[in-house]
User: What shape does this take?
Amino acid sequence: MVTAEAVWAALAEIPDPEIPVVSLVDLGVIRDVQVDGSNVRVELTPTFLGCPALEAMRRALEETVEALGGAPDVAVIQDDSWSTDRISAAGREKLRAAGFAPPAPRAAATTTLVQLQSKAFRCPYCGSTETRLENIFGPTPCRSIRWCESCRQPFEQFKTI
Assistant: This one.
């Protein structure tokens, strides 16, 4: 018999299709798991609407639940937006170790360009806060490109969403 604990453990092994150093669970896109006999409902909230990896994530979730012997029902929840605050502490450390600067905690107000240009962002390579915004547009909508003045390395900064 499939259990919720077994499903959560298996889902924690599925890498994010765009950033495989973190799992979908670490990224915080898995909202809930409900098991009723062999029926397994997994609720997923994408990082943003129109996410190109959504179908790949859905297939991976379905295949994982099927491998456990469950009948998957993957529901994409779009009425409650994802936020970078959902990234687990382990996920933030995995991002940093892979050269991505994790997002800062969300402020009560909207992030502004002045905040993005501040030197409050820490380099994932050397830890310096002497960094600057190079390009607000990174390889995905949730990332920007920064430059470390200390170790002279470019790095991707997760935007706080």
Observations:
- The first helix runs from residue 4 to 11.
- The helical segments are 4-11, 24-27, 54-67, 89-97, 113-116.
